[in-house]
Design brief:
The complex is a heterodimer of chains A (about 325) and B (about 500).
Chain A (H helix, E strand, L loop, with lengths): L1 H26 L8 E6 L6 H16 L4 E6 L6 H9 L6 E6 H8 L9 E17 L7 H10 L5 E4 L5 H12 L5 E4 L3 H9 L5 E5 H6 L4 E6 L29 E9 L4 H15 L2 H9 L3 E6 H22 L5
Parallel strand pairs in A: 1-2, 1-3, 5-6, 5-7
Antiparallel strand pairs in A: 3-9, 4-7, 4-8, 4-9, 4-10
Helix pairs in contact in A: 2-9, 2-10, 4-11, 6-11
Chain B lengths: L1 H10 L2 H19 L5 H13 L3 H18 L1 H7 L11 H9 L3 H35 L3 H13 L1 H4 L4 H15 L2 E2 L6 E2 L3 H4 L10 H22 L17 H6 L1 H16 L5 H17 L13 H25 L5 H12 L6 H6 L1 H24 L12 H19 L4 H23 L5 H23 L11 H27 L1
Antiparallel strand pairs in B: 1-2
The chains are: A alpha/beta (about 325), B mainly alpha (about 500).
Chain lengths: ~325, ~500
């Protein structure tokens, strides 16, 4: 009996001691160097959101003096699954969301509480979209395409990588601007869309820049959505919407990426993440990565980031409502 | 030639070889564990590849990829549980061979088949890349719809003796495929949608978790019931002969060629994949064996032919999937999507430009793929004498281990999302019960899997094709490729019926 009692006593002491140590760690302040900061990327590994955050995470590790950052891909339900995982975690700054326009779209579609329960830490960059057709199609300019669609409404198919995603919103937005003369068709992701446009099954599509560059010999880029020319050499002469003759059309010009955290995260924690992210963003590696992939830097911090997001939210709302996707 | 030497230089060094070895062994282990897929393996080692030179990193990723596809056959053959979807068509004959005491030959045959498939598709990748890439572009939504139709018709041939039961299970699988979100609008279509909207079930049943349930968990339940009964004497497993006799392999040349072609082309068409290719290859093999005048045994009876056909096809998918990935920048499957990402983070954009500007790297990738296939074969063969020892373990120990591994597998599918992981374990458990009940009453499992995989593909592409055609259902009859597939589908249904009639008339 006594042995059992002694054992129990030892166990209790051990448990209490571990508890004390654990408490000690809590009080050491953020970030605990023993702990890993997880950036949840709600899109698939290898996609451009994933690549941005993997590059950034490496630089954040350096900028923070060795704090461990990892990117974890939690995909599904149009980015809602990963977003919900961040919302289900503690608001302690150890779980960050690779957020942005996809979070706005998923929230507005009622798939997650998303940005309603989140704080914006930093805004990063915009990956502008390009409308392109296969190069043996008759349309030389965006105007040609629009005129052809107006002449035969519903005949010209206009594809996107999925209705709820950023290309879908851009696609629907453009269609609305021209009184729905296009046959807007959603595909199952970017790869499916490229194959269908290259194969001649779909007439035109909204693409991200890297997708166009990879097939520059077969594609004819018509217009870049967004306010500036591309920084990628092969795409630098693609006109903007305004230059193509449509300065009044306002559609989300690309996918915007940012870091978000769950609301209720302490202000000093958010400040720390924002500072580290800023240093990582300004690192040579990350800047080179952005330039090589044609991403337009749009860095903003905390309050500025909030203002930038609200601008996107205002742009998205009417388009999603018109498209019948709004469910908030 | 200069570019080739440069490519060789990138790969022929100690570091590349060691990382490929590491990748290969890891791939085989991951492949052999239920639920851990090739995609997951690649995503797992991707951070390591960032630190390596491009060719070395890609070589390691390819080694994981090939290894995981091949490794999946080990549990399929020994336990009747596919390690991942690549081995779903290997289960039947592989496991029957084990029951006959031919586990060694089945395992060895699977490795040889995988090696042939991998190397064959690599040859296609090197020499016919531009051609096959163009061919895959001809596959639009309408063509994919009819391809899915052919797959669905194959249900009849994987149904076993009772076609009606098979069709019922196929329909059940298709119904399961429709759960989740509407592929067009993103709207929920699931019972109790207000509750399920915030669960991972909102995106439908996860294929891997469902597979683990239907095959793995249900198998454990069935064996547990057997435990209480009188134990049959364990099958003695002879493992002297690992390599299939060369003569046998030569006799199967038609099966090998057809499986190679099916695997490479299906692998190259985005949005399809190994799970369809293996069933189609097996179906084609049935036709070849039936007309071989008794030289070849009929798949489904526990013979090498039934292991060879799907195993050649699933490794042929690896080379096939790389074709559009390298030539067009379009991934052929989920695993190659991660590979493309790994290339892009190195600043290399796949596509025709890669072939024009960075031929040494392209050669480097080809050579790395070559070594990845060799290592896959060597390391998996090295263990062939060891794996069957699993069968000697007492069921009382083996079954809990298999059950635990099954749950770990379905949990891991969710990546690091804990809530999703728990749900996936739930899917595996429920599907385990479903599978157990169905198996007990003699309903075949394979049609459910086919229905589940093809149902979604069929629906999505059908709707897209009709939308692109401006609402016309005639679009399927305006394209030559569609016609070919429709005729194949009709033939698959009609030919056996006519034959049966004839046989009936003769008797």
């Amino acid at each position: 009996m006594t042995i059992v009692r002694r054992l129990v006593a030892v166990m209790l002491i051990i448990t209490a001691a571990t508890g004390l140590f654990a408490m000690g760690a809590e009080e050491m302040g953020y970030p605990d160097p023993e702990k890993t900061i997880t950036i949840i990327c709600p899109q698939a590994a290898g996609g451009s959101t994933d690549l941005i955050f993997r590059t950034l995470a490496e630089e954040m590790k350096n900028a923070s003096g060795g704090q461990n950052f990892i990117v974890s891909n939690v995909t599904g339900a149009g980015t809602a699954t990963g977003t919900n995982d961040v919302l289900n975690a503690d608001a302690d700054g150890y779980t960050l969301l690779a957020g942005g326009t996809h979070t706005i779209a998923a929230t507005m579609q009622g798939l997650t509480d998303g940005y309603k329960n989140m704080d914006y830490v930093v805004g990063l960059n915009l990956d502008p979209f390009i409308i392109a057709v296969r190069n043996d199609k008759p349309w030389q300019t965006f105007e040609d395409l629009v005129e052809a669609a107006k002449a035969a409404p519903g005949e010209i198919s206009f594809g996107n990588a999925g209705m709820g995603g950023a290309t879908g919103v851009a696609c629907v937005g453009i269609n609305l601007a021209f009184d729905k003369v296009f046959n807007v068709t959603p595909f199952n992701g970017g790869a499916d869309l490229i194959a269908s446009v290259l194969g001649g099954h779909c007439d035109a599509g909204v693409f991200s820049q890297s997708e166009v560059v990879a097939n520059i010999d077969s594609f004819r880029p018509l217009v870049i959505l967004g306010d500036a020319h591309s920084t990628i050499e092969q795409l630098s002469d693609v006109p903007t919407l305004a230059e193509a003759g449509y300065p009044d059309i306002k559609v989300p010009g690309g996918s915007y990426r940012s870091i978000m955290v769950k609301s209720g995260t302490p202000a000093e924690v958010e400040q720390w993440i924002a500072d580290v992210a800023e240093e990582a963003f300004n690192s040579e590696t990350f800047q080179e990565f952005q330039a090589a992939n044609g991403m337009i830097p749009q860095f903003s911090k905390l309050e500025e980031a909030k203002a930038d997001h609200e601008e996107y939210i205002a742009q998205y709302e009417p388009i999603l409502k018109e498209a019948g996707l709004y469910n908030m | 030639m200069d570019a080739f030497m440069q490519g060789l230089d990138m790969v022929l060094n100690m570091s590349t070889m060691l990382w490929c070895t590491f990748g290969s062994i890891l791939g085989i282990i991951l492949g052999a564990l239920p639920g851990l897929t090739a995609t997951m393996g690649i995503a797992l080692v991707m951070p390591i590849s960032f630190q390596l030179p491009a060719a070395t990193g890609i070589g390691m990723l390819l080694a994981v990829y090939c290894g995981a596809v091949c490794g999946a056959s080990i549990p399929a053959i020994l336990l009747g549980i596919p390690g991942n979807p690549n081995a779903i068509a290997t289960v039947e004959d592989g496991h029957l061979m084990t029951k006959k005491g031919l586990a060694g030959q089945a395992l060895g045959g699977a490795v040889v088949a995988s090696f042939i498939g991998g190397m064959g598709s690599l040859v296609c990748l090197i020499f016919f890349s531009p051609l096959i890439a163009k061919l895959t572009l001809a596959f639009g939504p309408a063509e994919k719809t009819t391809l899915a139709l052919v797959g669905l018709v194959i249900i009849a041939s994987v149904s076993g003796k009772n076609i009606l039961k098979g069709l019922l299970m196929g329909a059940f699988g298709m119904a399961l495929a429709f759960l989740g979100t509407d592929p067009f609008s993103g709207q929920l279509r699931i019972p109790f949608s207000s509750f399920f909207a915030h669960t991972p079930l909102s995106k439908g049943l996860d294929l891997t978790a469902t597979l683990i349930g239907l095959y793995g968990v249900s198998q454990v339940f069935a064996e547990i019931v057997n435990l209480t009964k009188q134990q049959a004497a364990p099958v003695s497993t002879k493992i002297e002969k690992i390599f299939p006799p060369f003569k046998k392999v030569r006799q199967m040349w038609k099966i090998i060629l057809s499986s190679l072609g099916i695997g490479t082309v299906i692998g190259a068409i985005p949005g399809t994949g190994a799970s369809i290719a293996v069933f189609m290859a097996r179906n084609a093999a049935q036709g070849i064996c039936a007309s071989s005048k008794g030289k070849l045994e009929q798949p489904g009876t526990g013979c090498l032919e039934g292991v060879f056909a799907p195993e050649v096809a699933n490794n042929a998918v690896t080379g096939g999937a790389l074709i559009p990935a390298l030539a067009l920048g379009i991934p052929g499957d989920a695993a190659t999507a991660v590979l493309i990402g790994a290339l892009m983070i190195k600043g290399v954009t796949p596509g025709f430009q890669l072939f024009q500007q960075n031929m040494p790297l392209v050669y480097g990738i080809f050579i790395a793929m070559f070594f990845a296939n060799i290592m896959m074969a060597v390391y998996q063969l090295a263990g062939v004498r060891i794996y069957p020892k699993v069968l000697k373990i007492s069921q009382k120990i083996l079954l809990p281990v298999v059950l635990i591994l099954s749950y770990i597998g379905s949990y891991a599918v969710a990546g690091q999302s804990i809530s999703s992981g728990i749900y996936y374990m739930g899917i595996a458990l429920v599907m385990g019960f479903v599978g157990y009940v169905l198996k007990k009453d003699g309903y075949p499992i394979a049609p459910i899997v086919l229905g589940l995989i093809l149902g979604g593909m069929f629906e999505e592409n059908f709707r897209r094709a009709v939308k692109l055609a401006g609402g016309s259902y005639f679009t399927f009859f305006t394209k030559p490729i569609c016609w070919i597939f429709i005729l194949i589908a009709v033939a698959v249904v009609v030919v056996p019926i006519v034959k049966n009639r004839k046989n009936g008339a003769n008797a």
